[in-house]
Design goal:
about 700 residues; mainly alpha; Sodium/glucose cotransporter; about 0% strand; globular
Length: about 700
């Protein structure tokens, strides 16, 4: 095994602390709303931290290490381009504020109120299928990480370690969900989130002082030459190349050298070598940030758990600062992993890692496990245990959240709409638990049997697009446009689902069959072209086609929906709703988007957010303009990345202290409210009036 006694002791202590944290939730769950949305008592800080760690996950860490290894520093630059868009989303409360104002527990519940019950059932089915398939590889990736990182044996007392480990980890996640529903999920995820952020920053500090900056520069600068050598080596083994004349061979080799002269893992304006995770990947992702706000139901319970729409909005504003430790980790650690694998000073590390990777069956597995295997070779005693604990916390936090979300969605949005009457409270919670257990069984079997053939991030994109490809148009149109029709909603969601499912099916077609040109040559050529389109591109195509169909079909209708009733405004205002003001925020300062519901500290946070965002946006704009007219050296870019890294480290430290203090304060208030507040047992997701 790779872990020492001290490392295992750290893991055991963290695991025990996580399980103990759930004990705080005993006796607090008194209603269906408590199980589904923590009684709508979560404050901004605890909600932000919990939601952040839920979205992280062990699989997310693995795929960010995988993606960052390929792209280096270069493509981090394009992340600045989304800053203004994210700022608009957060300060305006884009989608989140209005959705929270509907008081819906799930998206399909909203779809019934806004469109129809049949459409709710349809969206519930599509969301459920998309979610559990997307979720399906989580246990496998997590289990493989623990096996290879910790150096666990292939079997324990004759039982295969891989399925056994998945069962143990899923059982712990189920325990969290069963004990206190969303209350337990939020509280456990809060403690996990604080711990994870601290370890991330400590790891960055260790690696920053373990690897010289000159070594980082040297390794990244050699990338074009190394990539060219690899491609030439592959080319020289091809029979078609061997048949060429000497002059033709030289021309082919020269073409490769010229192509890679304009490539870099340092300079974001030279990324032609990057496959999949290139400019277009990030552009689609940026568009998806706005289009897909609230589209992914894995985090719906967090939005519903906020004690007010304003708190949900502020949680979104704070997310950018809360995510600084995670962003710091994903910026720097993958680059250091690349250095260990490619710099001659660390040849022994690369040799050891490659020896392990060579024993894996597929390129997909080797790509996923390269980063974890490097870290297992370079992290010291203590930090090894801390990182395993981080991965354990990330695994459990994501799994308890997604088990809760997808299990709840199946009951709330597929089963309940078929009933004439709602469940009683006890039966309702019981069937929710049955459904959650069923989801756990499915993802266990899926992870055991499914053969993944593309990078994790791209698998996420295409499977998530089954629902998220079309749902964005339906959500945005439903919340902001009274002309949006039910027919348009059906068309948009169906279009996105069909495009994504087609992409998934095409990805599974054998290359051997496609290469055989003896029959159906024209069709196979088309299929091969479609197969080479990655998952992110399918998501982009789905978003565009769905949005266009929603607008077109809606314009053909003549419907004007009552938005005041949907959003509980005016005469339809819900008197039981905890509000700071009685209406949606006014534009007191139109430029800043702050109304009467803002406290002085809320305004301070907003202003700091504006300054931080506009500063990096200005850097992006000026830097882009300058680079388009000037050839900036790798040395200059490396200086920029070093200063940027130092700034991020400083801000990450501030973030940890700030959010830990605010989170514990929110947690105290939340516990008091859950112990003392009367429950509205009718708040269970049942829709009684769809007029």
């Amino acid at each position: 095994m790779n872990l020492s006694f001290i490392d295992w002791l750290i893991v055991m202590v963290v695991m025990g602390g996580m399980i103990y944290s759930v004990s705080f939730t005993k006796g607090l769950m008194k209603s269906v709303s408590d199980f589904l949305a923590a009684g709508r008592t979560a404050g901004r800080y605890v909600m932000s931290i919990s939601g952040g760690i839920a979205g992280l996950g062990a699989i997310t860490i693995v795929y960010h290490l995988e993606m960052g290894y390929v792209s280096g520093f270069a493509l981090s630059w394009w992340g600045f381009s989304s800053a203004l868009l994210i700022l608009f989303i957060t300060v305006s409360g884009w989608v989140i504020y209005r959705f929270r104002s509907t008081r819906c527990l799930t998206l399909p519940q909203f779809f019934e109120i806004r469109y129809s019950r049949r459409f709710r059932i349809f969206t519930g089915i599509i969301a459920f299928i998309s979610g559990i398939i997307n979720f399906g590889i989580f246990p496998a990736v997590g289990a493989r990480f623990f096996i290879y990182f910790c150096g666990l044996p292939e079997d324990i007392y004759g039982i295969s370690t891989f399925p056994l480990l998945m069962i143990i980890l899923l059982s712990i996640s189920l325990y969290f969900v069963y004990t206190g529903g969303q209350i337990a999920v939020i509280i456990a995820d809060f403690f996990q989130g604080v711990f994870v952020n601290i370890v991330f920053v400590v790891m960055v500090f260790f690696l920053f002082f373990s690897v010289g900056w000159n070594q980082v520069s040297e390794a990244l600068e050699q990338t074009p030459k190394n990539l060219a050598k690899e491609e030439i080596k592959k080319l020289e083994m091809e029979e078609s190349f061997l048949a060429l004349s000497s002059i033709e061979k030289d021309e082919k080799i020269q073409e490769i050298h010229i192509r890679y002269e304009n490539s870099s893992r340092i300079n974001p304006f030279k990324t032609s070598h990057v496959e999949d995770f290139n400019f277009w990947y990030f552009l689609i992702g940026i568009i998806g940030v706005m289009y897909g706000t609230m589209s992914w139901q894995g985090t719906q319970a967090y939005n519903a758990s906020a004690k007010s729409a304003h708190e949900a909005k502020m949680g979104g504003v704070l997310a950018g600062f809360r995510g600084l430790p995670q962003g710091l980790f994903f910026l720097f650690v993958p680059v250091v992993i690349y250095v260990f694998m490619n710099h001659p000073d660390y040849q022994s590390v690369a040799t050891s890692v490659n020896a392990t990777l060579d024993g894996l069956g597929t390129d997909t597995l080797r790509s996923q496990l390269r980063g974890p295997m490097v870290l297992s070779n370079v992290l010291p005693v203590g930090l090894m245990g801390a990182f395993v604990s981080v991965m354990f916390a990330a695994f459990v936090s994501t799994h308890d959240t997604y088990l809760h979300s997808w299990g709840s969605i199946f009951i709330q949005d597929v089963i309940m709409p078929f009933r004439k009457n709602p469940f009683d409270k006890e039966t309702h919670i019981k069937v929710l638990r049955y459904s959650i257990f069923g989801v756990a069984i499915f993802i266990f079997l899926f992870s055991l049997l499914f053969q993944q053939n593309q990078k994790i991030a791209l698998f996420f994109a295409i499977t998530g697009a089954i629902f998220a490809g079309g749902s964005g148009a339906v959500i945005i149109g439903g919340l902001y446009w009274n002309r949006g029709t039910t027919a348009a909603a059906w068309t948009a969601l169906s279009t996105g689902a069909i495009i994504a499912i087609s992409g998934i099916i095409i990805k599974q077609i054998s290359n051997d069959w496609l290469i055989d040109s003896s029959s159906l040559g024209g069709l196979k050529t088309i299929i091969l072209y479609l197969k080479n389109i990655n998952g992110q591109m399918y998501w982009g195509i789905g978003m565009g086609a769905s949005a266009l169909s929603y607008i077109s079909i809606s314009l053909l209708g003549d419907t004007h929906f009552n938005m005041d009733k949907l959003l509980n405004r005016g005469e339809y205002a819900n008197k039981n709703e905890l509000k700071i003001v009685e209406k949606e925020p006014e534009r007191g300062w139109k430029i800043f988007g702050m109304g009467k519901e803002f406290t002085p500290f809320d305004k301070f946070i907003y202003i700091v957010n504006y300054i931080w965002t506009f500063s990096w946006t200005l850097v992006f704009i000026v830097g882009t303009i300058y680079n388009l007219s000037n050839d900036v050296s790798n040395e200059a870019w490396m200086s920029f990345w070093k200063y940027y890294l130092v700034i991020q480290i400083g801000m990450a430290l501030i973030s940890i202290v700030w959010f830990t203090w605010g989170g514990f304060r929110d947690l105290k208030v939340m516990m008091v409210k859950l112990r003392s507040d009367e429950r509205d047992h009718s708040d269970d997701g049942w829709v009684t009036d769809n007029s």
